[in-house]
Every structure is written in C-alpha cells, then in structure tokens.
Amino acid sequence: MLKAFAHTGISIIITVPDDQIPHLTKLSFAQQWVKTFVQPYIPATNITRILVGNEVLATANKLLIGNLVLAMETLHEALAGETLDHLIKVSTPHSLGILSTSSPPSTGKFRQGYDTHVLKPMLGFLRSTGSPFMINPYPFFGCSADTLDYALFRPNPGAFDETTRLTYTNMLDGQLDAIYSAMALLGFPDIDIVIAETGWPSNGDANQVGVDAETAAEFNRKLIEHVSSGVGTPLMPNRTFEAYIFALFNENLKPGPTCERNFGLFRPDMTPVYDIGILRPTATASYPSNSGPGPAAAPTASPLPRSRGKQWCVARPGAQQEALQGNIDYVCGLGLDCSSIQEGGPCFEPNTVQAHAAYAMNLYYQAMGRTDFDCDFRQTGSITHVDPSYGSCKY
Predict the structure, then answer these.
(1) Closest residue by Cα to residue 287 from 11, 7, 1
(2) pLDDT digits (tens, 9 = 90+) for 140-152
C-alpha cells in the first residue's frame, strides 16, 4: 500500500498496532520500526504522520495506557535520530469515551485518572512537537430519532449552552467543542484538533435510525462542506478542520452490529455504495495538504509524470527566505544528496538561500519524476524550461 501511493503527493498516515506499544518504549525497537516501515518508502511516499495505537484509552488495558505517552516520545526520538521529526509527526487517536462530560460543550472534561496521568503529559508532548490532538467523533452514535436532524446538519431548533450563551446547530460542533473545553481545562487550548475518523453507515439493524445510503451520503457530503467552510465551531470560529471519512470500504467480515460492516464509500468489490461528489474519471480530487514545508499535496490534474521536454524546478522570485530555507531543510533532510550546495561543492557559490533552495528544490523535482506538484513547495517553486546550470554547477 505504501508503494502504491508513491509519487502521488497524497499525505499518508500509518499506525503502530496496539500490541507493539510496550515494545516501542525501547529506543532500539523504535529505531528498527522506523527503519522497517518508514525509511524504505520515503521520500517517494509522502508519510506525514504516525499514530501510536488506536483509541488506546478505550481499551482499559493498563499496560497499553501506561506505556502510550512514553511510546510516542520514543518513536519521536527515533524519527529525530534520522532527521525526520520535522516531516513526520507522532500522535494517537481517541474515542469520545475519554470525556466524562460533554453536554453542554462548555462542560467538556476528560475522565478522572486519564486527565492528569495520561492526557496532560500527552498534550505537553503534542505541543512541544507541533502535533495535533486526534479525535474520532461520531454523531451517528450519539443521535436518536429526536436528534437525527441535529446530527445530520439539517435545520433544527439547535442546542443552547447556558454557560457560553452559544447556540449549536449540529452535533459535530458540540462534540469538537467538548474536546476543546476539556483540553482548555488542562491548559492546552492552542493545540490543533484533527478529526481522525467520522462517518455514517449505509445499512444497519431495524432498531437504528437513518441507516440507509441516502442518509450516509447526506452526512458525508455535508461533513466535507462544513469542515472546509472556514466557519469553524462556536468555540473555535473561523477555522477549517483536517478530517478523515470512515471508511473507504465496507468491512464485510467485521463482527458486531450490521452498521459496523457498512460505513464504507465502496463495497468490497470496489463498486461505489454512493457518491458524495468525489468520484472522478481521472485523478482530479484534492488531497490532504502536506504537513511539512515540502511540495503541496493537492494536485488538480492527473499525478502521472508528463513528457514535455527537459524541465527544471527553481525558487520563485520574491519567495520569502524563511520558506526557501525550509525547502532546503525538507529536501536535504530526506537523505537526497545535497553535497553540491555545501561548502566546497560546485553549487555552493553564490552562497545565498535563493540559489541553494533552487538546487535543492530541483533535486527533489527530478527525483520525484518531474510532476507539477513536486515543484509547488507551497507556491515558492517555479518550473522552467531554461537550464539553470552554470559553470561546474550542474542541475
């Protein structure tokens, strides 16, 4: 799967299985894990985040819970040892079960025992490494026949929070703001919140409401519109939310209630269950943006290499030096050969950030197959048909 996403620019998140968490507290194990599951696939595959376990606090497994933060710290240390920590961030996703109270949202509070012993040091780690807090909010599991419209972003009377005097028009905002309130209570209101997974089933049992393809399509379509609108939530206004839809495929072999097997956008035979406006005859969809300073991961055309003669990638005139320095750090941190722009190298002179960035950016562009988005670098790169080589400095 990691090889299949190579050279697409699509941001990929990988997960350490729960049972490996105790082993990951040992630096030697973490280093070997990075060497086995990360290094062979980068920079071709755009791995941007590693999640340690899945909803670990909900397992009630004291061994896993007690080792979770240390495992995250050790994995980060292993990434830092390979100068990958600025490209790949470490986090872990949680269920809403970590909250003891969530309604109204202003009363959001983490469960006692988890708050100071696990979540507070975890939030400290996330802040220090620039990583997000990841949560799995599911309005489907929190709604009833009476609150179905509230869960589905439909017109409804809303829910009023007496403390903040704010009105909530949908359940997702209430769930996100409850998490925000709990984080603020521990002193961490500044950490980004990412929706690690959410979705709606297209089929379910007779006693469940809204379990059909039309309703599932409605929720996911409105979810995309809402999280990308920039409206934010009542407590977190004017922002967008990185969000992931659960799931790509129906899990026909999964045990449990019928709904658990029917959250997918596609059936196991790869036919679509419904379309929420993302199906395309060619690869024209937008993808999650790159968390690092490297090439933007939002191609608007087919990501296949194009044959248009020899091309080079150079720094765009007027680009900020800080951004260009970030491009140099990004490319050279991936292990590509930047010796030519080091002192004594043929491209060291002129010793300017602009010149060094141009060489590094082109180095990446050529290695990745010369696709347009591999020269974007957050709009600081420009493609040229004029060879920028000079003297003994060869691009």
Answers:
(1) 11
(2) 999 999 999 999 9
